[in-house]
Amino acid sequence: MMIQIRGRRTCCDTGETSDTDLWLEIAPGDSVGAIVLKLSGGVTGYESMYLTHEAYTNLIAVPRDWLANIGSRDYDQLVVPKEELVRALRAYATK
């Protein structure tokens, strides 16, 4: 399932933050209840996260931002706000 979301990108050169459009692919993981999140349009093209069923449940119960890329002198920082992440996870759960 692909869901369009908004992220916050902080430029590694200027420190300026801006909103950015992203696509989040959510797919079943290799164990029962696990899921895999993959971003399209991210900083490096390799931003992804594996969530066990327990981690997925905890993230819905106590939302946190996803620091998809910590940033460096070469790569911008990329954060998926918790509101966007929870909205996408809930859409996946009700599909």
Compact description:
The protein is α+β, with helices and mostly antiparallel strands and 95 residues long.
Task: Report on the architecture of this protein.
22% of the residues lie in helices and 41% in strands. The chain is α+β, with helices and mostly antiparallel strands and 95 residues long. The protein has one domain. A six-stranded antiparallel β-sheet has the order 4-3-2-1-6-5. The radius of gyration is 13 Å and the shape is elongated.
**Strand ordering within the main sheet:** 4-3-2-1-6-5
- The tally of domains stands at 1
Beta content = 35-45%
What assembly state would you assign to the polypeptide chains in this entry? single chain
- Average pLDDT for all residues: 94
Compressed to H and E, one letter per element, the order equals: EEEEHEEH
Name the poorly predicted regions: none
Distance between the termini: 9 Å
Major β-sheet profile: 6 strands, antiparallel
Shape: elongated
Number of helices: 2
Radius of gyration: 13 Å
DSSP summary, beta strand count: 6
Produce the secondary structure layout.
Layout: E1 2-10, E2 17-28, E3 35-40, E4 48-51, H1 53-61, E5 66-69, E6 77-80, H2 82-93
Antiparallel strand pairs: 1-2, 1-6, 2-3, 3-4, 5-6
Provide the descriptors you would attach to this structure in a database record.
single chain; 95 residues; alpha+beta; six-stranded antiparallel β-sheet; 2 helices; 6 strands; 22% helix; elongated
